[in-house]
Amino acid sequence: MNTRLSFLLDGAEVPFTPGQSVIQAALAAGRYIPHLCYHPEFTPHGSCKLCTVRADGRPAAACTLPARAGLQVDSETEELRALRRTLVQMLFAEGNHFCPSCEKSGNCVLQSLGYDLEVHTAGFRHFFLDRPVDASHPDILLDFNRCVLCRLCVRASEEVDGKGVFYLGGRGVQRRLLVSSESGRLADTDIAVTDKAVEVCPVGVILRKHVGFAVPIGRRRYDVKPLRERALEDAPRGEEGTHG
Amino acid sequence: MAERRLRVATASLAGCFGCHMSLLDMDARLLELLPHIEFDRSPFTDIKQLSPCDLGLIEGGVCNAENVEVLLEYRRKCRILVAVGACAITGGLPAQRNHLDIGACLQEVYLTEPGTTHGLIPNDPELPLPLDKVYPIQEVVRVDYFLPGCPPPAEAFWRLLSDLVAGRTPHLPRELIRYD
Q1: Cβ atoms within 10 A of the Cβ of A139, count?
Q2: Which of A12, A78, A208, B64 could bridge across to B128 with cysteines, CB 3.0–4.6 Å?
């Protein structure tokens, strides 16, 4: 059975099954490509551009790029690292990402991406957003000032919870996360604290109340292990995908 | 010829001195550094006049007119300027007032709420005027290096200072980059 399909990622062979995206095949093979809006359980969104690679020389989002036999993919290059760093810096400048005051610190994907990409400063003028928080729900707090528009909660609520609690509205710089109840308040939706949409937020927008500092800073998810290790642990592995 | 020591100045603008405490937290390794560095203007020395320095470490963001003046002087006189800690780099905790109007803030604190000022917004000419917002220092002057963290770990200060003493470009390893 030597018909296994594969492409090259940074010069090393990565096997794939037809229908897999480049990032799916890479993660299944134990190869990390940085990403933020991609999540193995949901339809890819392709918006954050963190997973941008060069495929046969052309830039493409690895989460929406179908794997193809013989494709030459470059990911760990200084050019792409610089691009990813700038994307993360822009996100930090755009939202209110003041880690010392955020309950998500240590569990935050954006923060951990910053660490991995050696981001020391936002590098752009901070927006200092002023969006009211929504504390109406007894178990869940929404701080819209930290939203990175990854659409993960929207997808989780639609695809897994079957509720459609969240949506993105507005255009361009006005684009933002909204709650789909008539009042616009979270309390008036049927969201539950156990919903996938609550769990999946990569930053500090959707926060469970009453558990803020139950796990102290320094012992949290990405304090203990860096993002790239966690991403590989979380990636689904078929038997096709387990070879490095 | 005796080695010329690295001349270091430090300042805390709108900060809490936690970053300065963290620098001291390198404990006994300070003794290793001291033959190679000397402090100029700094809360450590209480020297009031800034001389030309090799390195300026700035803690805290820029929240008032005095902060601007101090920061500009440090930039002019320090060959290398480093933003130290979350407040210098992001505005930090003081910048959490940035979505409020400064006039409304003063009104609330000194006029609306009960206090000791007898319904007067302080206006002594010696008091520096607050700015409309709290600014990260790199939004006011050029900054050469950044030590993130609240505060940056003592090890990060050690790396920065020992790299500069050795004449190396400072490099912060991945495990010393923390924002919280």
Answers
A1: 16
A2: B64
- Measured in angstroms, the CA of A219 and the nearest CA of chain B are apart by 12
Confidence (pTM): 0.94
Report if residue A101 sits inside a domain.
yes
Q: Does A111 touch chain B (CB under 8 A)?
A: yes
* A98–B93 CB contact, under 8 Å: yes
> Model ipTM?
0.93
Residues ≥6 apart with Cβ < 8 Å to B48: B41
Q: What is the pLDDT of residues B40-82, one digit of tens each?
A: 999 999 999 999 999 999 999 999 999 999 999 999 999 999 9
CA distance, residue B30 to nearest chain A CA (Å): 25
Query: Is domain B6-97+132-176 classified as CATH 3.40.800.20?
Result: no
Counted domains in chain A: 2
Smallest Cβ distance to A120: which of B139, B172, B180? B172
Provide the pairing of β-strand A52-55 with A72-74.
Answer: antiparallel
